[in-house]
Design a protein that fits this description.
The structure holds two protein chains of two kinds. By secondary structure, chain A is mostly helical. Chain A is globular. In chain A, about 50% of the residues are buried. Chain B is α+β, with helices and mostly antiparallel strands. Chain B has 14 helices and eight strands. In chain B, a hairpin with a 4-residue loop joins strand 5 and strand 6. The radius of gyration of chain B is 26 Å and the shape is elongated. Classes of the chains: A mainly alpha, B alpha+beta. At the A-B interface, helix 3, helix 4, helix 5 and helix 6 of A face helix 1, helix 3, helix 5 and helix 6 of B.
């Protein structure tokens, strides 16, 4: 018996919220203070790697369409790539600021996968609306790691990157497979009374 | 200006799916997918998560001999439920259901499943109309084997043959090849699963993107193996990445051992696991055959692309150590391969009278070439290295042996996908043309 999609989304929302708050804390107090305890630097890259493993588990149970299987495997690989690069930067294995481009690419591809694999319109149901919203949020948010690669000293990128995950967490927490959005629910949506 | 146009085009392309609406997914079927019912059903019912449009062939039920048993489809419950009457189903047989609906977004959703009346139904890959494996399956399987040779072979040889500390450039390349192997194993595994499912679904292109693959994932041995190996290789990929990031080569051990266990999924899901005369011994032999082949190919590749170009001081030691374990690898490889071949082809004449036997002959020929190449290295290169000499052209020769080894893997992929000569067991099948 597989859990409903919304339950998996809520679990990821919890992870994303923690993820975003960690990044937000680092952005507020500054990297030097935040990393005064060295283990804190490993938090978000480790979480991204861990999310990658979990997304593989979700991917193999998303065989109800080829598109879902491929989209989830892309998210898993994007999370693994971003986590690996950021962990390598923390460990000093990678030095160039341009490695942030990998995270930017991972966010963009993840957002694009959200948009492509959601086949219903914005106002079809709440889950469809949120898929579009999360997709576009990630696509637009890829500008933050992109900015960090090109102009690394600006704090805007750190705040934007952190708030992206908090926002995505709120969106995922709002998800319900079949529920209205702004009072609208398509006549075609399944599970209606 | 041009950059702006490109950005606008990308954003527009992403916006297009948002303009679509209402894509349906099948939620429930009666008789159930791969289910067994006691009495012949009088209708097939499919329930979707939203309204669908039913084309004339929305539900077609086939008898094992290909006869069509279903009548015209009717829809109820705001068009979320489709029903097709069945006439002529009898007890003791398995039936194929093919469905095809148009969602409100215009996309065509498709699916296929089987059910049995008083019998266990065959997997959906053996549904009526399934085409069996094609050259695409062979290429996907070969790519998977080559990826495993990179992940298991290169990482395994690094752990078993090379010293604990090696040149950092060589270490980086081992990390790169191992991680690349895991990444490719995941993606070629997904491609192989989708291609195999498409053969049974008989769809391609955009229709394949919206096809229901769950019956294949849940009700076939290769689907079960796909689920376990994909998740497992995802863990292997993460561990290998961590081994690089943390500069902890010993962390490769759990990835290597986990991958060895996961490889067991292929003997269990391939014909070795489904042939009527399969035993635990044939499955173990197939696993040994696969693992020793991966280590052998990976070892030659490691010498050719890691040790020779990047770690000249390790050449002699690595070559001699690999030569020693290669003898055992080849012995185990040949013993396991011979045993499995005898099980699959009990008659010697099967070698030249069946397509499986002919493919096996090609593979044996390629293995002989590879063994001769390895024998040349063992006989002529090894003594010179032992004397402290540096024979020229060994790197290129090792590359040549690697290419032959990859060709052997291709022949192995064709064999694994192919069906050995049938053994009569009297089992029930819904398929008209199973296998290659």
């Amino acid at each position: 018996m597989l859990p409903r999609a919304e339950i998996a989304h809520w679990l990821f929302a919890a992870g994303f919220l923690f993820f975003g708050l960690v990044l937000l804390a680092e952005a507020i107090v500054g990297q030097a203070v935040f990393r005064s305890r060295p283990w804190r630097a490993y938090l978000w890259p480790s979480l991204a790697l861990f999310a990658g493993v979990w997304l593989w588990l979700i991917a193999v149970f998303s065989t109800f369409s080829t598109l879902h299987l491929v989209a989830h495997s892309i998210w898993a690989q994007a999370a693994t790539a971003a986590g690996a690069v950021e962990l390598a930067r923390v460990r000093g294995r990678l030095h160039s600021q341009y490695w942030s481009l990998v995270t930017a690419g991972a966010l963009f591809i993840s957002g694009a996968s959200f948009l492509v694999h959601e086949q219903n319109g914005w106002l079809f149901a709440r889950s469809a609306f949120l898929h579009h919203l999360v997709g576009w949020t990630l696509v637009v948010a890829s500008v933050f790691p992109l900015g960090a690669a090109l102009r690394p000293r600006r704090a805007l990128w750190s705040y934007g990157f952190a708030l992206t995950f908090v926002a995505v967490a709120v969106m995922l927490f709002s998800d319900r497979d079949v529920a209205s959005i702004f009072g609208h629910l398509s006549e075609l949506a399944g599970g209606r009374p | 200006m041009r950059r702006r146009a490109v950005i606008a085009a990308v954003l527009l392309a992403l916006a297009v799916p948002a303009a679509a609406s209402a894509h349906a997914t099948m939620k429930e079927a009666h008789p159930a997918e791969q289910g067994e019912v006691d009495a012949p059903p009088t209708q097939v019912t499919l329930r979707f998560d939203q309204s669908v449009e039913a084309p004339p062939d929305a539900i077609v039920v086939y008898a094992p001999d290909g006869r069509r048993l279903s009548g015209p489809v009717t829809q109820t419950d705001r068009d979320t439920v489709m029903r097709a009457p069945i006439r002529g189903a009898v007890k003791g047989q398995a039936y194929t259901v093919r469905w095809r609906v148009v969602s409100a977004d215009g996309h065509v959703g498709t699916g296929v499943f089987t059910f049995g009346v008083g019998v266990t139904p065959p997997p959906p890959t053996e549904a009526v109309g399934a085409s069996g494996v094609t050259w695409r399956d062979d290429v996907a399987r070969w790519a998977l084997f080559a990826s495993l040779a990179l992940m298991i072979g290169v990482v395994g040889i690094r752990l078993l043959v090379l010293p604990r500390v090696v040149d950092p450039r060589a270490e980086r390349r081992v990390h790169l090849l191992g991680t690349l192997g895991a990444f490719l194993a995941l993606n070629t595994g997904i491609a192989g699963f989708v291609i195999r499912s498409a053969n049974a679904l008989q769809v391609s292109g955009v229709d394949l993107l919206y096809a229901d693959l769950s019956p294949f994932a849940e009700s076939t041995r290769f689907g079960n193996a796909f689920l376990v190996t994909t998740f497992g290789f995802g863990i292997c990929l993460t561990i290998l990445v961590l081994a690089w990031v943390l500069d902890a080569p010993l962390l490769r051990w759990p990835a290597f051992l986990l991958a060895l266990v996961l490889v067991w999924g292929y003997p269990l899901s391939g014909h070795q696991g489904t042939e009527p005369n399969s035993t635990a011994l044939t499955e173990i032999a197939d696993w040994v055959h696969l693992v020793t082949a991966m280590l052998w190919v990976g070892g030659v590749l490691t010498l050719a692309v890691v040790v020779w170009p990047l770690a000249p001081d390790l050449r002699r030691g690595a070559f001699l150590r690999f030569s020693r374990i290669a003898v055992f690898l080849i012995a185990a490889l040949l013993a396991a391969g011979t045993f499995v071949s005898i099980q699959r082809l009990p008659e010697l004449s099967d070698l030249w009278t069946t397509s499986y036997g002919k493919t096996l002959l090609v593979k044996i020929g390629l293995v002989c070439v590879a063994l001769a190449w390895g024998g040349f290295h063992h006989t002529f290169v090894r003594p010179r290295l032992e004397r402290g000499e540096t024979p020229p052209g060994v790197g290129r020769s090792l590359l040549g042996e690697s290419v032959v080894a990859l060709a052997v893997l291709f022949a192995a992929a064709v064999l694994v996908n192919g069906a050995p000569p049938p053994v009569d067991t009297g089992s029930t099948s819904a398929a008209s043309t199973p296998g290659r």
